[in-house]
Amino acid sequence: MAEQNDVAWHYIDPGKPQQNAFIESFNGSLRDELLNEDLFDTLDDARRKIALWRYDYNAVRPHSSLGNLTPLEARRTIAPPEGSAPGALALKPFADYQSQTGRLSL
Question: In terms of C-beta distances under 8 Å and separation of at least 24 residues, what long-range contacts does 97-105 make, across chains too?
Fold first, then answer.
């Protein structure tokens, strides 16, 4: 599939997980919060528990790398909802107001 889309492969050097820190962090969270904590009785049980963990990871739990937003909240701040007219409901920030994070707030 990668070859069909002209995507170059980049391998990580053995013993150098810092070259792919994002996925290593995700794998560690998955292992520590789910795989080391739960037993799976059936394939359906594993699918259910993984789906619940994935929802919690993406929509409930804040991530420090995203300014303590959930990935879902962070995505909403940078991408308009699908099907929305560009700028139709956009609010303009007040330049004289700054939140505690030092960013403009809508």
Answer: 101/67
Lookup result for tokens 């049980």: 45
**Confidence grade of residue 98 (pLDDT, cut at 50, 70, 90):** very low
Query: What pLDDT, on a 0 to 100 scale, did the predictor assign at position 83?
Result: 66
Q: Which of 102, 74, 79, 75 is nearest to 90 (CA)?
A: 79
Of 106, 44, 50, 49, nearest in space to 80 by CA: 106
What is the maximum alpha-carbon separation in the chain? Answer: 57
Q: What is the tens place of the pLDDT at every residue in 18-29?
A: 888 888 888 999
